[in-house]
Structures are given as structure tokens and as C-alpha cells.
Amino acid sequence: MKIVKFIAGIRFVMLIPIIGLAVAAFVLFIEGGNELIHLLVKMFVEAAKTGAKSDIIVGIVEVIHLFLVGTVLFLTSLGLYQLFIHVLPLPGWLKMNNIEELELNLVGIVVVVLAVDYLSVIFEEQEINMAVYGVGYALPIVALAYFMKIRSEMRSSENGHVTAITEALSQAGETTQSPDKTRD
Fold first, then answer.
1. What is the pLDDT of residues 107-154, one digit of tens each?
2. What is the pTM of this model?
3. Most exposed of 30, 60, 69, 79 (fewest Cβ within 10 Å)?
4. Three-class HEC string of the chain
């Protein structure tokens, strides 16, 4: 009995990454808010300059990037808390029932973060080959999309397999119960 309590108590070790991720998300939100305020001031001060528009667009994309990364960290923290510590009263789209759901949510958010990061590269005036950057960003997105596709196919085939087994067992149960019913 003591071993079971000890093993159940070990789950509280997960508070370390949960708190760490939540603090990191909070720091990114504060930094993003700070940069957003500076960006708004810059927009009003330098609104008449022609070159300022591209700087403002890059700044907006970078602020969005900070908020998205903070969101990834925060959602990971919430998901780990729900999975290991205690279920929270959250809306359905935020609830995590298993690690796979957390992984799939993270993969989706990472794809968005990569796309926003690529947009910031596009808007910056640089002497680089955009095709190389495009391929560099596209490959992880394709790999993550493939991962999500394979994971959903595995899940649907497992569900189909479980359904087939359940139906077979229920039919077998009906045939074994038929002679019993005739005895009554």
C-alpha cells in the first residue's frame, strides 16, 4: 500500500516542468506586450516615413510569434497539469485526456509558429535565397502533417479493430445465450 502511495505521489514531480513552462509563457507574454507597446509608439511616431511600414509589419509578425510561442508553452503546461495532477474545469477544446491529444495540439501550434516565423523572414529585407528558407520551413511542416495523418490513421484503425472485436464478442455472446434461452 505504501508503494502505491509513493508511486502516486511521484506524479507531483511534474509540477517542475508545469511551473517552469507557465513562468516561461508569462515572461513571453510580458515581453510580447512590451514590444507591442513599443511598436505602437513607433507606428504613431514614424507613420509618415515610407520605409517604416515594412519595419512595422516585421515587428507585428515578431510580436505575434512571441505570443504564439508563449501560448504553446502555456497550453503545454495546462495539458501536463491535467494529465498528471488534476483535471481542470476548462472548455472542451482545452481539455487533454491523454498524451496523444497534447502532442497533436502542440504539433498544430508548432506549424502555425513556423508559418509566422517564415513570414517574418519574408518581410525582412535581406540578401538571402527565400527558396532555401521556404524549404527549410516547409520540411518540418510536412513532417508534422505526415505525423498527424499517421497518428489519426492509427487511432481510427484501432477504433475500428476494437469495434470489430466488440461486435464479434457480442455476436458470440448471443449464440452462446441462445441455447440458454431455450431452456427457460
1. 877 888 888 777 777 776 666 777 777 788 888 888 888 877 887 777
2. 0.67
3. 30
4. CHHHHHHHHHHHHHHHHHHHHHHHHHHHHHHHHHHHHHHHHHHHHCCCCCCHHHHHHHHHHHHHHHHHHHHHHHHHHHHHHHHHCCCCCCCHHHCCCCHHHHHHHHHHHHHHHHHHHHHHHHHCCCCCCHHHHHHHHHHHHHHHHHHHHHHHHHHHHHHHHHHHHHHHHHHHHHHHHHHHHHHC
Q: Between vectors from CA 118 to CA 112 and to CA 122, what angle results, nearest 5°?
A: 140
Q: Which three cell numbers stand for residue 124?
A: 525582412
Q: Would you tell me how many other CB atoms lie within 10 Å of the CB of residue 13?
A: 10
